Amino acid sequence: MNRTFRRSSVFLALVAVLTAGCATSPDAGESPAAPSGATGPRGPQPPPSAEMRRFYDQKLTFGSCTDFATTESDAEFYGRELLECARLEVPLDYGNPKGRTAQLAVMRVRATGERQGALVVNPGGPAAPGTSFAAILTGTPGYARLGEHFDIVGFDMRGTGASTPTVDCLSDEERDGDDLVATWFFGGDSWDAATTKRVAEQCAAGSGGADVISHLGSRDSARDIDVLRAVIGEEKLNFLGASYGTRLGAVYAEMFPSRVRSMVLDGGIDPNLDTPARMEQQYGGFEAAFRTMAAACATAKGCPLGTDPALVDQRFQELVRPLVDRPVPVAGGRSLTYRAAMEAVLFSLYNPAGWPTITTGLAELKAGKGETLLAARDRAHQRQSDGSYSTFLEGSFATHCNDKERMDPEAETAMRRRMLAAAPFMDDGKNRSARDSCESWPSEPTLGYPYATGIKGLPATLVVSVTGDPAAPYDGSAVLAKILGARHVTVEGSQHGAAYVAENTCVDDIVNDYLIDLTLPPANARCTL
Q1: Sequence-distant (≥ 6) Cβ neighbours of residue 383 within 8 angstroms
Q2: CA distance 109 to 151
Q3: Which pLDDT value is given to residue 188?
Q4: How far is 156 from 85, CA to CA, in rounded Å?
Q5: Are β-strands 83-91 and 462-466 bridged in parallel, bridged antiparallel, or unpaired?
Q6: Residues 203, 330, 11: CA angle, nearest 5 degrees
Q7: What is the signed CA dihedral for 405, 201, 396, 448, rounded to 10 degrees?
Q8: In angstroms, what CA-CA distances link 100 with 94, 322, 396, 508?
Q9: What is the DSSP string of 418-462?
Q10: CA-to-CA distance for 274 and 200, rounded, in angstroms?
Q11: 457: which residues sit within 8 A by CB, 6+ positions away?
Q12: Which of 62, 225, 317, 502 is 20 to 30 Å from 309 by CA-CA measure?
């Protein structure tokens, strides 16, 4: 596996626990988004209003991408001549296009042959840098044919990456402390009302104001994509969305169906499920992936989880639960906490290439060491060599809070307990109560459930689903395909996402045929990783 593939799998991994959606008041010249809880068809959209024309008619000035790198790994390759970057201006609030604006980082990789259009890509997260994803895709074997015909265009979602304003909620010291960020993943069991209020206020203060963090939802980003589509000269959108990007694509399809030419959604999310149902389904996917990993481990000598499938959850918790009260010291004055260990394992489940990290880390933990698991946790959090962090996960949290429905502590606690019942390997045994970490957010969510249903006028789309996907379980992805009337490709395997990043010829040929020629695969098409 090459380095670019490993980096892309991290992006796809981080979608799982933070997905949702939001809408702001639409501009008078735009097709309105569905209000919270509403569904219905969308017909042809009117042209942009006079107030919106300046955004749709802007010209991008592309140049070097060097100044667009926000992490050390990006800095290693953003200087390549192949890559060119620009900044796209969009309204912060589409309900007030004369007000504040945001600047979105955009990367373009020009077509190498006879160009027939541009493909906008989103790696999920939410808020994973689309600029990085565009660059990563050019290093995959499946890109060669696609890249002859299409510019690859990635953008950093509002509030994230090299886009400005940028979300900044926590100090690096707080990020090292685990509890606050881990709560976003595992439920608000370590927060109280004062903490939710403080974090929301810190997010607003560090990000440029409450109005900034109130306009970071999925529908805002879908509108951004439509502006980007027009500015790069595309009458119709070609879109590849992975993981959370499948939600973003589905929301775009709901809002602008007549502006879609092609859409590939890889590792899909069921639009029918509210947050509790989705999280329970997702944690069931994590448990299945954990057991698949443990079964593979059992065939190797010295597996730290043993050889009895019925005991793997118990063996795992015997190793990690002591960390709740006694973190393991690690060089540099840090410690491996229970939450850090769980995050390391969780993110390493997204691809079989990460499984050795789990088994090696657990074997080390058995010997009282935590270096491997802490390093895996740091990679997932994009911790830099100087101890600083990218704001990726804070951007994910902000999108999450703009999207998900609010729940009182009783409902949040019930949801968390259902999640842990579905994935007992993740249960620390404390049976804590929980609360909604977004309860003090300065804006209300407006995505509504279900979303993206009853769409009319949407051309044929393509959904790719991996049978053993830990973060986007196959059943949910299959429902997305049915709702959109998409052609569904089943991929036998045990990883999150498959198009291009899996470097699988069967999958990539199907996706390329569709994107380039609009040729759909046969019904019930299958591939094996």
Answers
A1: 175, 389
A2: 5
A3: 52
A4: 11
A5: unpaired
A6: 45
A7: 20
A8: 10, 49, 22, 41
A9: HHHHH-GGG--S-------TTTT-SS-----SS-S-S--S----E
A10: 23
A11: 41, 42, 43, 44, 257, 258
A12: 502
Query: Which residue in 358, 342, 186 sits closest to 279, CA to CA?
Result: 186
Q: Which amino acid is at 331?
A: A
Q: In 3D, which of 158, 80, 76 has the Cα closest to residue 125?
A: 158
Residue 214's Cβ-side half-sphere holds a number of Cα atoms within 13 Å equal to 16
Q: Based on the residue annotation, tell me whether 469 is a catalytic residue of this protein.
A: yes
DSSP label of 309: G
Choosing from 243, 348, 440, 494, the catalytic residue is 243
SS (H, E, C) 246-260: HHHHHHHHHHCHHHE
Token digits of residue 168? 């900044």
Where the chain has pLDDT below 50, the residues are: 1-42
Has 214 been annotated as catalytic?
Answer: no
Please tell me which residue in 27, 220, 496, 508 is annotated as part of the active site.
496
Which of the following is catalytic: 151, 168, 469, 508? 469
At 422-433, the pLDDT tens digits run 999 999 998 888
Q: Is the dihedral of CA 490, 492, 498, 499 positive or negative?
A: negative
- Per-residue pLDDT, 248: 97
Question: Is 496 one of the catalytic residues?
Answer: yes
What three-state secondary structure class fits 68? helix
Return d(Cα 503, Cα 485) in angstroms, integer: 26
SS3 for 478?
helix
Q: Which amino acid is at 25?
A: S
